[in-house]
Amino acid sequence: MAGVLVFGDTVGGKLAPASLEMAVAGAALAQALNEPLIGALIGDGLDAAAVEFTGGFTALHLLEGKQLRPYTARAAIAAARAAIDACQPTVVLFPHTSETREWAPRLAAMLDTGLVMDCTALSAEGSDLVVSKPVYGGGVVAQYVVRGATRLVTVRTGVFEAKVGAAAGAINKIAVADAPAGRVTLIDEHKLQVEGGVRLKDATTIVSGGRGLGGPDNWHYIEETAGSIGAAVGCSRPVADSGWVSSAHQVGLSGTSVKPDLYIAVGISGAVQHLAGISNSSTVVAINVDGDADMFTRANYGVVGDYKEVLPGFVARAKEIRG
Amino acid sequence: MNIIVTVKQVADPNIPPAHIQLDPDGKRIISPFGVPPVMNGYDANALEEAIRLKEAHGGKITVLGLGDDTSRESLKMAVAMGADTAVLINDPELVNGDSATIGRALAAAIKKIGLPDLVLCGRQSSDTDGGQVLHWLAEALDLPTVVPVTKIEAVEGNQLTVHRLIEDGYQRLKVELPALLGVSSEINEARHPSVRGTMAAGRAMISGWKAADIGLAAQTPKVELRELQIQLRTTKAELIGGASGAQKGAALADKLHELGLI
Question: Is A186 part of any domain?
Answer without folding.
Answer: no
